[in-house]
Amino acid sequence: MNILAIESSCDETGAAVVRDGRYILSDIVASQVETHALYGGVVPEIASRAHTEAISNITRAALEKANLTLNDIDAIAVTNKPGLIGALLVGLSFAKTLAYSIDKPIIPVHHLKGHIAANYLCFNGDSSPLLEPPFSALVVSGGHTSLINIESYTEYRTVGATQDDACGECFDKVARILSLPYPGGAKMDALAKIGNKDAFLFPNAAVKDRAYDFSFSGLKTNAINTLNTAKMKGEEINTEDFCASFTKAVVTSLVQRVQRLLCDKELFKSNKFVLAGGVAANSHLRTELEELCARYSVEFYCPKISLCGDNASMIGAQGYYEYCANYENQTHFQKELLSLNAYATKRIDG
Ligand code: KG4
Ligand code: ZN
User: Fold this and answer.
1) Which of 34, 170, 195, 235 has the most neighbouring CB atoms within 10 Å?
2) What is the pLDDT of residues 164-180, one digit of tens each?
3) Ligand number nearest to the C-alpha of 314
4) Ligand 1 in contact with 310 (CB < 6 A)?
5) Which among 104, 78, 75 is positioned nearest to 90, based on CA atoms?
6) By alpha-carbon position, which residue is closest to atom 24 of ligand 1?
7) Nearest residue by C-alpha to atom 5 in ligand 1
């Protein structure tokens, strides 16, 4: 089954063709990073406009790269939640129109489910990935930080989540104060490799009496205050050391909770652990989780770096499993076509 997938929830416009939920036939991403970098963060109105300008061309490019035409497409999957509402509406309206014009079903996909599904994917010609539910996952992105039990391809249970800021947002805000270019996560990752991770001490992102929840706002404020105080006093801060220490604090907070989950026989039954989301590209986090899982003899999965950030292939992968789960009732997708809406917020298990 060939699914044409569309992603436009934030600042990347994505179009991809995915076969049977596993094989990427094409994956095109138009990034708006350079535009938003001028403002130090995503400007929603500019994002919507840029999606509108890019979406037709990148969809055409995705079909061409897959060597297919719209006649070869069996369904269209599209991110409709959660995200920037204007940005989501651009992708959704485009996908609805296309699906209507070719008389094919439309499959709405939750963005975070897509990030998790990035772990099912491989490029055509690669060996097939082995991951199948059930498993547990840490989803870390610019807007979310959650520990989730994936019970089947379409059933989720949140184990813990951030009570305030997301982990990626925290990287980006601190990077901005360090005058690193937006988005700062990847730059911080690189600088952290050459810094001293014990140079600064930051608080853990723990939440008292809530074993699996996170709170990144205290850690973020502490880091920003440290930088502002040094600036006021005219003291020099070594950027590499600061990045290394801050990254250590974030990674340690995440890894500690994952470790607790791996030891929790009530909540962790699958013996498979998955990392997903934009921050899954962080080299320190990948290494530490890989080592942790190896110590506990747990199978560890994380997407290829190119599939960690927002892309449409992951939406095509999840779209396939949403379609299969409702196979008995295919008219459901057809009926949804005209009434389908976008939602800025939506729980993964709601
Ligand atoms: O999943 P994503 O592309 O967008 C959302 O759904 O939010 O995640 C983007 C986030 C940004 O905060 C970015 O700074 C962060 O992922 N990120 C990283 C790295 N690469 C991207 N954070 C830490 N280390 C990285 N290597
Ligand atoms: Zn994302």
Assistant:
1) 170
2) 999 999 999 999 999 99
3) 2
4) yes
5) 78
6) 282
7) 142
